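Aim 2 progress update. The chain analyzed this quarter is reproduced below.
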Amino acid sequence: MALWSGWISFGLVTIPVHLYAATEERGAGFHQVHTCGSRIRHRRVCELEDREVPQDEIARGWQTPDGRTVVLLEEDLAALPLPTRKTVDVVGFVGERDVDPVMYSKPYWVGPAGETAQRPYALFVEALARHGTVAVAKVTLRTRERLAVLRPRRGMLVLHTLMWPEEIREPDDLSSSAPVTERELDLAELLMDQLAGVDIQGVHDEYAAAFEQLVAAKVAGEELAEPPEPVEAVDLMEALETSIRAAESR
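Predicted C-alpha cells:
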C-alpha cells in the first residue's frame, strides 16, 4: 500500500509517483507490565475536564509566546502551505559520496503512478544511473518537510530521507593520537583482504533466538550463561598475525 502519492519535479518534467515502505521494524512485541506480571495501561486524561478521552478527540497543541495554546488538528497540519507537500522537489545533483552517510535516515521505494508516469520514470532512473549521481530533493512526509536523495537501484528509484545538516550533532574530537607502524598497517590490510567478500544477505539477526532462550530460562527458573567478552589484545602485532592465520585456515 502506498504511504504517499505525489510528483517528482525535475525541471519542467513531472513524474507521478507513489512511495512505499522499504523497511519494517521487527521486535519481540513486549507489553509493559508491573513486576507482579499484571499489564500496565496508559490512559489519556483531559486535565480540565478530568476524564479519559478517546483518540479521535486528541489534537496537537502549540504554545504561543504569550502562553496561549493553539489547537492544531490533523487536517490543519495536512494543509501546511508547503510546495513540497505533494511534490518531491529536486533541487540539484551530487555524487553519492558527497552525501555524508551519517545524514541518511529512512528509505522508501518509489514507483510510477499510472501509465503516463512509465516513460518519464524510466528516463529519470536511467539518466541517474548513467550520470552517476543522486538527486537532492525536498519532500514533506507526515506533515514535516525533509531533505532527501533519489538514487537508482535495479531499475527502480529509492528515496532516502536525510537529516537536515543542523540536526547532526558534531562530536568532540574522538580520534586517537596513538602512532601506528607500517608493518601494523600492512597486517591490518592483509586481514581485511582475508575477510573480504562477506555475503550480507547471509548475516541474520540473532536477537529472536536469544530472546527465546531467555524466555525458556525464565519459565524454567534457570539462569542463562553469560556470553564470553572479547579479550583486549596486549600485543597488537601478535593479535593481527593470529587473526590472519585463523582467517587463512577458514
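The chain has five helices and eleven strands. The first helix runs from residue 74 to 78. These observations will guide the mutagenesis experiments scheduled for the next reporting period.
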